[in-house]
Amino acid sequence: NFAHSVSFWSNAGSFANTPYYVSRGETNNHWGYYISATGLASTYSQGGGSSCTNSGGTTMVVGNWYFLTYVWNTTHMKIYVNGKVDKDWTACTMIDTNGHALYVGTDEANNRDMTGYVDEVAIINRSLTDSEVRNLYYYSLCQKQLGGTDCSDIDFFRTNDNELLNWSMVKEVP
After folding, report:
1. How many Å separate Cα 103 from the centre of its chain?
2. What is the pTM of this model?
3. What one-character-per-residue DSSP string does 23-55 give?
4. Among 168, 4, 30, 3, which Cα is nearest to 106's?
5. Residue of 148, 131, 149, 42 lying closest to 84 (CA atoms)
6. Sign, Cα dihedral of 147, 65, 77, 131
7. Where is pLDDT greater, at 77 or 173?
């Protein structure tokens, strides 16, 4: 079972070269989450002689911040933009990439480096629900807008052990 969720804030400097934000694997056995050349949140997987690509429907604008979340639960794949479902479809087979490196801001297979910023990357080893994605977005947005001020009125995201997930990563890619 490779169910997982990946979320992050994105502010792309360009959509040229279909920049990858998070990817894992190598040339013939990999998956990745990227922005298409036309500004659509997209996903790709390849392995075992087959490949699968799909994109959301929200066109993003270079230089704007977006909160992207990709959720895969072994039967369905969902892309969320700013906490809302952007695309939901029957997932193709996810490739087993255990033992391979995980990349942020690029993909090993095609060297599709992103330009711009990626922030608050979260990789969760299960599928988030629609309400968890929405709450994660609003909590993160509150933290960004209020600069760490108390956002306790938001039903923020906690793990099954009731521990607040806490991450922060800022990466500027030339």
Report:
1. 12
2. 0.79
3. EEEETTEEEEEEE-TTSEEEEEEEETTEEEEEE
4. 30
5. 131
6. positive
7. 77
DSSP state of 164: B
Q: How far apart are CA 58 and CA 10, in angstroms?
A: 14
Cβ atoms within 10 Å, residue 48: 10
Tokens of 158: 């906690």
How many residues are given for the chain? 174
Quickly tell me which residue has 């072994």 as its tokens. Answer: 74
Please compute Rg for the chain using Cα positions. 15
Q: Find, among 54, 23, 22, the residue nearest to 41 by Cα.
A: 54
Cβ atoms < 10 Å from Cβ of 109: 20
CB contact at 8 A, 164 and 156: yes
Contact 121, 5 (CB under 8 A): no
Average pLDDT, the chain: 76
Tokens standing for 15? Answer: 């959509």
CB 132 within 8 A of CB 138: no
Sign of CA dihedral 92, 102, 79, 157: positive
